[in-house]
UniProtKB/TrEMBL annotation:
Organism: Neptunicella marina
Name assigned to this protein: cyclic-guanylate-specific phosphodiesterase
Reactions mediated catalytically: 3',3'-c-di-GMP + H2O = 5'-phosphoguanylyl(3'->5')guanosine + H(+)
One Gene Ontology MF term: cyclic-guanylate-specific phosphodiesterase activity
Leading EC class: hydrolase
InterPro entries, alphabetized: CSS-motif_dom, Cyclic-di-GMP_PDE-like, EAL_dom, EAL_sf
Length: 508
């Protein structure tokens, strides 16, 4: 009886899951159909500013898309994200083509522009749509063995998710004691079939020996998990207490990494980076203790300690050298902190340097609460501080952010810098596209992660006014080493060395 109840519950959940998949599929198909029609109906000149603006408006308002591109002779010549391309990007061979309708489809392939994300792409002879890999993420199933399949009338499967080969599910679409399958066709308005399944319904199909073994294993695992959780909890409690104590005693320290103007080799600024060394845990990586601070409500205190220490150490240097800037990282929660801005004003005024010498780096991690973030950024800008958009190029909404947030600086993510020198043509096309985009944006650009002279030369050849930051010039250093680095041009330490062909000129 209990197994039948479990099976009935599984059936109800599977029906609800099918409804969710059907609704999402209908929305995606409707969006794609409308956008193909609207872009063609607009009749703008190909890749003109008007057409790019229209495509960007559509892209920013449809989270299920990663990009919209214009095609010519089966090659990408421009897109909403990358603008006009320096050279066309040829499309790969489609997974499926429909000659009568003139449409092509690519299933689970590397996106044709950046080559880093697995996406689905659909195109006619004029327009290419890139469907985001997370288009169905909002309806992720609760059961591990559950999946869905979207298939067309001719048997093609444009999208599928789940642990079983979709062909196997389609061929054996009847439910059994060890597999639940529901299928509905023609429910999305696009002539497709939605098939959902649960390959592990309840405990059906499991013999007594298996269940006994599972029970014994579960018992052993429960004991091990209990011991592990107790140990982890003790560790976390210990680290939480240690971090609270370190923040109370202001034991978090700050190092600085210079920003260099590539065409002159001159130091124009530095980024403050938080560090923590504990006698028990050793040198704790920044991402570890920053994440820990966020999880335990310690971020406001950590941010204030870092800002106070960074300005306290670099304040004299900034006052004496008005051309230098100091970059400080802020979280989304920091921007919404109503008291933080007054705290920053107080610290800066104590050291008597200009507000525009402080640059606050923010990273786009989600679109939630965007209006509040926009208002918070406006408050910073209104008091003379500058905003830098960090890790540019890694999120779906960076262009949307740039259109609304008053960023005076962009920091290009190191993943793009590391593409330099790659033999892959996709990487070369990606770099050409991002340099074209940056040229159109007309804001100060910093390339992170420069580690070789080849990378520095490549960036300089494509972006004459670019700034660079990375180990090729200097690792993070103390304020004393930074002052010596700036005044003497270099520091005679193995771990702090400027580029071999660039002379770092004194700025003080």
């Amino acid at each position: 009886m209990s197994l039948l109840l479990v099976l009935h519950s599984d059936n109800e959940r599977l029906e609800a899951y099918q409804q969710a998949v059907t609704q999402t599929t209908s929305e995606v198909y409707s969006t794609l159909s409308n956008l193909f029609s609207e872009i063609n109906k607009a009749q703008h000149s190909i890749c003109s500013d008007a057409e790019l603006k229209l495509m960007r408006q559509y892209l920013w308002t449809h989270s299920e898309l990663t990009d919209i591109a214009r095609l010519q002779d089966k090659q990408i010549i421009c897109s909403a994200s990358w603008g006009k391309l320096a050279s066309p990007i040829p499309l790969p061979v489609p997974t499926k083509s429909w000659q009568k309708s003139g449409f092509y489809h690519w299933r689970n392939t590397k996106d044709a522009l950046q080559g880093t994300l697995d996406v689905n792409m659909i195109a006619n002879n004029k327009i290419l749509m890139l469907v985001a890999p997370n288009a169905y993420s909002s309806i992720s199933p609760e059961e591990l063995g559950t999946g869905f399949i979207i298939s067309t009338n001719d048997g093609y499967i444009p999208n599928a998710f789940g642990p079983i080969d979709p062909e196997d599910i389609i061929k054996n679409s009847q439910s059994s004691f060890n597999r639940l399958v529901h299928q509905k066709c023609g429910t999305t308005g696009s002539g497709v079939c939605i098939t959902v399944y649960n390959s592990k319904p309840g405990l059906l199909g499991k013999d007594h020996t298996f269940l006994l073994v599972i029970c014994l294993i579960s018992l052993v695992l429960s004991v091990l998990i209990y011991i592990t959780l107790i140990s982890l909890n003790n560790h976390r409690n210990s680290m939480r207490k240690a971090l609270k104590r370190a923040l109370r005693r202001k034991e978090i320290y700050v190092v600085f990494q210079p920003k260099v103007q590539l065409k002159t080799g001159r130091v124009v600024g530095m980024e403050a980076l938080a560090r923590w060394h504990h006698h028990k845990f050793g040198q704790v990586p920044p991402d570890v203790f920053v994440n820990f601070a966020e999880e335990n409500g310690l971020m406001p205190t950590l941010t204030r300690v870092v800002i106070e220490k960074a300005i306290g150490l670099a304040g004299d240097l900034l006052r004496q050298s008005s051309h230098l800037s100091l970059n400080l990282n802020l979280s989304m929660a920091d921007l919404s902190d109503p008291m933080l801005l007054n705290f920053i004003d107080f610290q800066r005024q104590n050291h008597e340097f200009n507000a525009e010498q402080l640059i606050f780096e923010i990273t786009e991690t989600s679109a939630s609460g965007f209006e509040q973030i926009e208002q918070s950024v406006d408050r910073f800008v209104s008091r003379g501080y500058r905003i830098s958009l960090d890790d540019f190029g890694t999120g779906y909404a960076n262009l949307s952010w740039l259109s609304k947030i008053k960023a005076s600086e962009i920091k290009v993510d190191r993943s793009f810098t590391h593409m330099i020198g790659s033999p892959h043509s996709t990487h070369s096309n990606t770099l050409d596209a991002i340099f074209t985009l940056l040229d159109d944006l007309k804001v100060s650009t910093v390339f992170e992660g420069i580690e070789t002279q080849q990378q520095a030369d490549y960036v300089l050849n494509h972006c004459r006014d670019a700034l660079g930051q990375g180990w090729h010039y200097a690792k993070p250093m103390s304020i004393e080493q930074l002052q010596q680095f700036i005044s003497q041009g270099y520091v005679s330490l193995d771990n702090i060395r400027p580029a071999s062909s660039v002379t770092i000129r004194p700025m003080v």
